[in-house]
């Protein structure tokens, strides 16, 4: 049995609202950075939870789909303020980035054709590719701990390149990662990965199809928030043809440039497709599953954390997630790095990431400025 959330302390909901509104408005750098900031705020500075409990919650977020840093915020809100804290922490963390993304989407629709704005986006895109590649490299060190997991990742990348459905790839990869525990039966599963093909019918861009598309992504999004790129490209660009490659890159750039969850990219895309109503619907669709998953899994965290089977399955899912990220970085890179200027921006971005340890927010800002000046 899990440990129930404590009764909210006096003033706890106000503390939750103030903290997560501030973090939602200022937390740049992506999911890994958000987790570090949360640990500093709630463990070191405020003592809301112990470091051991924090690590247990972090493990739980990796076992359920959805944006990890948002789910961590929701978990912490639940522990501090009960069910009301659960909702309040998630909403306060999500809203600032979503509102800013909607404002930028309006500006993009209104002014996006202007050369100055095009130059900013032109320079941001190569920097985004470098950030994604960096995330793949860093995460692979922890995720691909064995040759078998590396083989699962390679097979997953091959499957996606051959047209396999991303959800099937994730599921089969998770099962295949149990191979060392199941013997030959488990290992045989990895051979079947490249054979799983996608079949999906295009739908009109109505509010309900828009909600369903993002709710599906929010319900199956394992791993880093950057894996979102793979799902968005597969569903909205290739299958439904709602977006172009260029529009997707612009949306991803805005999601990276804004603070808070990278998944606020959904708000930008929703606005492009259906205006303010589409922005609201896409945002709710993307993040609603996270609230449900945290509410259901929170009381089971101790049991989930100790499950060898769940850990093995997660290893496979993470390996496949890295493969998806690598594939989408290569595919989007063809649309982003198109001439000598973008090659130079990508190269300088790589140097800034590897040697100067520049944060992703400053990297994107510098790329946009370079694009505006050089194009």
Give the tags:
single chain, 375 residues, 0% strand, globular
Account of the 3D structure:
The chain has helices spanning 12-26, 31-45, 51-63, 68-111, 115-143, 147-161, 166-176, 179-182, 184-192, 207-220, 228-239, 245-257, 265-297, 301-305, 308-336, 340-354, 360-374. It has one domain (12-113, 145-237, 259-329). It is built from 17 helices and no strands. It has 375 residues and is mainly alpha-helical. α5 (115-143) packs across α12 (245-257), α7 (166-176) runs antiparallel to α15 and α16 runs antiparallel to α17 (360-374).
User: From the alpha-carbon coordinates, what is the Rg to the nearest angstrom?
Assistant: 20 Å
Round the mean pLDDT to the nearest integer and report it. Answer: 80
Strand content: under 5%
The counted number of beta strands is: 0
**Count of helical segments?**
17
What is the chain-wise order of helices and strands? HHHHHHHHHHHHHHHHH
